[in-house]
Amino acid sequence: MAKAVIVGTGIYVPGAPIDNKTVMKLTGIEFDAARHEQKIGIKQRHISRLSGLQETTADFAEKAARDALKAAKIDAEDIGLFIVATDTPEHISPATSIIVQGRLQGGQTYAKSFDLGASCASFVEALDVAARNLMTDTSVHYALVIGVYNMPAFIRDDDSFGWSIFADGAGAVVLERQEESNSGYIDGTFITDGTQWNFLGVYAGGTRFPITHERLNKGEYGLQLLQKMPGDRNIKLWPPLIQHLLDKVHLPQSEVDHYLFTQINKSVIEQVMEILGEPIEKTTMVMDRYGYTGSGCIPMAMHVGLQEGRIKKGDLVVLVASGAGLAVGASLLRI
To answer: What sign does the CA torsion over 53, 59, 60, 64 have?
Structure first.
């Protein structure tokens, strides 16, 4: 049976790193930087908007993709499937993936392109879709999956929560269809609860809440926190989801070499690893250097883990991501 194997990863963040004190100075908002760094784990981040850069989602995605293509040692023309995983697209329409395809391939090709939006679970879900496409479609030899985030573009000026947490960034992976390999994507399992749509999101600008002068004057635009999310939600969700995935593929937890989680809260990841009975060394956290990059954080953490030797060839890796809405996913692959 054909496998979908990761043969290259890439990363991109805009501008120089911005520490917590500088964020407060640039935005005029206040938060407890010391507590933020200790509990959440965020010490710095990259934000195009605060750096005076004219770069947005498609730019981040393109540059991460080029980095991954270089690592995979293949040409952009070889890609038969483009998926951009994000809930902060370049435009409502056309899809960001189509724009990225045009920049990378320069024109019309026999490639499939689409965006996948499942909030911050977008990359894990897109990886599952891309892998299954590669494994079943013999005409596609390479797929490019890009997790990208530009939520700071939607943060209102007075939003201290938004400015303290969210950041810009992108991570990309190149998948190759291989007929015989010990590596590759194995399986995934997912949770959806659409009754939780009204917690956190960008609600204005779609068909339900078009942008109007009245809505703008009321501050009903951009990133909106409508209800406070339960602080222990991921602690309750992630361990049983991982067990469900491992049961599905008939593998014991002892086989797992590394775990990658949504990078929104250091203390949550530490608690989950404790519940799993796993040493903290078996996970990679990058929120200290990149902030929270939503759909981009899983592939960015994977790239860092590979570059730093924390994840090695042959390792069995579990990816776990949570997104507002509610969308949660876990995937299993062998590097």
So the answer is: negative
